[in-house]
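Case study 2.
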Amino acid sequence: MKKLIILLFFIPSLVMAQHYTDIIEIPNKNSDQLYLAAKEWFGLNFNTSKNKIQWDDLALKKIIANGKRQIEYQCTNGKMHMDIFYTIGAELKEGKFKYDIFSTKLSMGKWPNSTYNRLKKSVEKDELRLKRMQDKQKVSRKNSKKSCEECLKSGKEAIEKIEAQLHEVIDELTLALKK
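Prediction:
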């Protein structure tokens, strides 16, 4: 029943999310040691209204939390700030742990309820639009081509930074568990 609840918790967010999962070996640590280290890390990093632990199960040695990070990237109108809302889960076993992390929502300027997939599709559309412009070699639309190139560049930069932030969360957790 508990696994079903966890699955139902994750499914709606996975549809529009950037998702990473893996099992990481932590030699010479038992599940209790890993759970205590994870609980400490989660407690230190997820203790605000924006970053909080959603589920903590000692018996299953599983912790799930929601977090928020912010990135800054260059856009045609200058620097933009984007909030990345994500969910992370850690399941701790003898000598290893499994993590699941995914972005649940992106919030930026005029788009307070965007997703990673929407951003990715927007970048893909910009790539196609730019390719069509290059194929047609429309000189009269230089400004349009330049604008499209700038949007494409800023979208790719945002995607790279989102992915880097999610990996950074996992790196921080892994480091805390290895101590």
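Residues 54 and 159 are 26 Å apart (CA to CA).
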